[in-house]
Amino acid sequence: MSQGNTGVTSQAVLAQACPVREVLDRVAGKWSVLVLIAAAHGPIRFTELERAIEGISRRMLTLTLRNLERDGLLKRTVHPTVPPKVEYELTSVAHELHGTLLQLTGWAERHRVTIAEARAAYDEEREPVDA
């Protein structure tokens, strides 16, 4: 069906999809998923997150935490102690998202070998033949 028949312009579709894409880009980001899963079991401190998430730099963890807090997915609590104790925990919206993330990561774990095999077969079929 052509666009003319639907009454929907490509600009309207993009305008409506943009906020959804923005949310999905943030939530589906590699580090965001791992932070949300790590923080799902209750308040967690920065250093605990850093240890729990292999390969994340301090800077990337800081940026990810700020973005998730800004998006309303994490709550940051600063306890008035010396030194200050800062904890992060999921908001109710993020708890709802957590179940979906577990399903997605479970699917990825179950099918990672299949996907790796498919990639290898694809690459092998398209590998240039040496002349």
What tags apply to this protein structure?
3 strands, single chain, 131 residues
What does this structure look like?
The protein is mainly alpha-helical and 131 residues long. It contains six helices and three strands. The chain has helices spanning 3-6, 10-27, 30-38, 46-52, 58-70, 92-126, and strands spanning 44-45, 74-79, 85-90. A three-stranded antiparallel sheet has the order 1-3-2. The model has no long low-confidence stretch (mean pLDDT 87).
In short:
By secondary structure, this protein is mostly helical. It has 6 helices and 3 strands, in the order αααβααββα.
Report how far the terminal alpha carbons are from each other: 47 Å
How many H/I helical runs? Answer: 6
Low-confidence spans: pLDDT under 50, at least 5 residues?
Answer: none
Please summarize the sheet with the most strands.
3 strands, antiparallel
Report the C-alpha radius of gyration, rounded. Answer: 21 Å
Write out the strand line-up for the largest beta sheet, numbering strands in chain order: 1-3-2
User: How much β-strand is present in the residues?
Assistant: 5-15%
What do the pLDDT scores average to?
87
SS-derived structural category: mainly alpha
- What share of the residues lie within helices? 55-70%
Number of strands: 3
Shape verdict:
extended
N-to-C SSE string, H for helix and E for strand = HHHEHHEEH
